[in-house]
Specification:
alpha+beta, globular, eight-stranded mixed β-sheet, Structural Genomics Hypothetical 15.5 Kd Protein In mrcA-pckA Intergenic Region, Chain A
Length: about 200
């Protein structure tokens, strides 16, 4: 019986830029997936809700949604695999929500071959909670935390209400929950039928 070809896997560290303490995730990603699927994986791993536009910048190349008036030269992320876009790179960026400007620094920590392909991304570790959607980027997020922490702050009541009455735990991270979210990525697509 022939041996199946080995599959290349990347170990990526995804770190949210300009947020302290650092919000990061370490994930294993099958390199055969499209860049659009990598977007879905990052959303699931970080805890975002896929409510805004996004783009990757790898070297001098931008991969994005090619939506509305996209920048000249942007390549449709659905047409390129992670291997095609990222191989040979040590770092690249992923920007989510152009209004708030959440930039993620992605480091390729390792690449290795396995006899069996991953069926979904796998989170190996991480720390701290992803900021809430629409919290205004790194500066707005700090203001949000300051207001939540101080009952006398003029925006405290508004932010508590906006956060559905919950206290935001910036140190929260649940590896099991993140991996459960990553397993669901294969069954859904951010735009149309699954492209694996």
């Amino acid at each position: 019986m022939p041996t199946p070809p080995e599959q290349l896997t990347f170990q990526l560290r995804v770190e949210l830029d300009e947020v302290t303490p650092t919000v990061w995730r370490q994930i294993l990603v099958p390199t055969s997936v499209r860049m659009s699927r990598l977007h879905d994986m990052i959303q699931a791993a970080m805890g975002w809700t896929n409510s805004h536009l996004h783009a990757f910048t790898v070297g001098d190349t931008r991969y994005g949604m090619c939506f509305d008036e996209y920048p000249e030269g942007e390549i449709d992320e659905q047409t390129v695999t992670v291997l095609q876009a990222v191989r040979g790179q040590e770092r690249f960026t992923y920007e989510y929500d152009f209004g708030d400007g959440w930039e993620h620094i992605i480091t390729v920590e390792a690449e290795f071959r396995t006899p069996h392909a991953l069926k979904f991304a796998l989170c190996l570790g991480g720390e701290n909670a992803c900021p809430p959607e629409d919290s205004g980027g790194p500066g707005g997020f700090e203001y949000f935390l300051e207001a939540l922490a101080d009952p006398k702050h003029e925006e405290h009541v508004n932010y508590v209400r906006w956060n559905d009455g919950d206290i935001f735990d910036r140190t929260a991270f649940d590896l099991v929950e993140v991996n459960a979210a990553l397993q669901k990525v294969r069954q859904r697509s951010s735009r149309g039928p699954a492209i694996w």
